[in-house]
Amino acid sequence: MDTVTRRRFLLASGVTGAAALAAGAGAYTLRDILATASDRPADARTLVLVTLYGGNDGLNTVIPYADPAYHDARPDLAYGADEVLRVDGELGLNPALAGLHTLYGAGQLAIVRGTGYPKPNRSHFQSMDIWQTAQPDRPGTTGWLGRWLDASGGDPRLAVSFEPALPVLLAGERGAGAAVPVTRQLVREALADPVLAALGQPQEGESALRARASACFADLLAVDALVAGARQAAAGDDDPDAGDGAEGATATGGATSPLQAQLDLVAQCVEAGVATRVFSVSLGGFDTHADEKQAQAVLLGQVDKALAGFAERMARTDAGRKVVVAVYSEFGRRVRANASDGTDHGTASNVFLLGAAVHGGLYGAAPSLTDLDDGDLKHTTDFRDVYATLLERVLDTGADRVLGAWRGRLDGPL
């Protein structure tokens, strides 16, 4: 892998740790990532980390429908046995998760129950810092995947975010991952396509700054075209005249959500064989203090559609079958519903692992709904067990280089 981009990044930032985020966020384009297509080892696996911001309600995601304590604690929010997508005689998935339920049935979805950390924090920001730095006692300035990046040579293109801002989890001591945000802000009705394309073409004798602006605009056009292709694919399910731009997009139909657009870009990169080993994507809106049932169902429907379509697409190629997706949120919700038909900030929840390389099933002990910690679930699996397993089984890195002396591991899903 060349050192030019790495040197440019380090010189431009002049900083380390979390302060490198601002420099990393504007330094890379999709073209930069695709330029690494020849640098990837053939047997390398890929980690896609999906963050659900806001604190997703784990009890209404993986539902203990047979537990009377569940129905007693949230009578108006609870799902009945006839509503859930059954996993076994006690648990079921939210009705909006039909695609994930199919993956579970195919043995490609692992549900890690009761995941959390000691002395849980119920602040969105502090809890997310804890999850992303993997330092529950005192969150530092580096993310766990940023430290992995440092240990892997530091090239930012090894860890890519398609989110609006580069998350803390990709910040290392000596640099940070690359941010390539998805955008749909081009106003095509204002300018004809040839004019827009011309703005992205290099000009002889132009300054380095103008050349960089031109390249970034061309990349923006490419991203916009990709998102448009995904929309066209969705329309194509019902429209036999949909054009060829739908090729390669998710095949699940309906409008394109932000998460689906991000995962479409991940899929393109995986299929191109880029050097990137880690992708970070996200979806927000899970802070469901009021009227939760319908709002969460809509959000989980977006998650399901994006993940199921991505998994289907990844199953078509050898590189795609080496992808492991991990889905988490900063905390779950309290066991008992509040007076606004919602739930407040809680603690332990579920982590999903999915993909062709995953051994599906239930992992970790289910937390008790009656033996609580001040009304909250007691965690049964430390999230660092999940991270250590992903580092060793997906990223081929000794967990001690990232998590220090942590010795916990998951047994079985990878």
Task: Indicate the topology.
Blueprint: H1 4-13, H2 20-25, H3 30-34, E1 46-52, E2 62-63, H4 68-73, E3 85-86, E4 92-93, H5 98-105, E5 109-116, H6 124-133, H7 144-151, E6 159-161, E7 178-179, H8 193-199, H9 208-236, H10 258-272, E8 278-283, H11 292-314, E9 323-329, E10 349-354, E11 361-363, E12 381-382, H12 383-393, H13 400-403
Parallel strand pairs: 1-8, 1-9, 5-11, 5-12, 6-7, 6-8
Antiparallel strand pairs: 2-4, 3-4, 5-10, 9-10
Question: Strand pairing plus helix content: what structural class?
Answer: alpha/beta
Shape, please? globular
Low-confidence stretches: 1-26, 184-191, 233-254
Order of helices and strands: HHHEEHEEHEHHEEHHHEHEEEEHH
Helical segment tally? Answer: 13
Which architecture does the CATH hierarchy give at level 2?
A: 3-Layer(aba) Sandwich
Strand count: 12
> What's the CATH topology label?
Alkaline Phosphatase, subunit A
Number of self-contained structural domains: 1
Strand coverage percent:
5-15%
Overall average residue pLDDT: 84
Helix content class? 25-40%
Radius of gyration: 21 Å
Main sheet overview: 9 strands, mixed
**Under the CATH scheme, which class?**
Alpha Beta
Head-to-tail CA distance between termini: 28 Å
Structure description:
With 414 residues, this protein is α/β, with parallel strands linked by helices. It has one domain (4-183, 252-403): Alkaline Phosphatase, subunit A (3-Layer(aba) Sandwich). It is built from 13 helices and twelve strands. It has helices spanning 4-13, 20-25, 30-34, 68-73, 98-105, 124-133, 144-151, 193-199, 208-236, 258-272, 292-314, 383-393, 400-403, and strands at residues 46-52, 62-63, 85-86, 92-93, 109-116, 159-161, 178-179, 278-283, 323-329, 349-354, 361-363, 381-382. Strands 1, 5, 6, 7, 8, 9, 10, 11 and 12 form a nine-stranded mixed beta sheet that branches. Strands 2-4-3 form a three-stranded antiparallel beta sheet. The longest helix has 29 residues, at 208-236. The two termini are 28 Å apart. The relative contact order is 0.20.
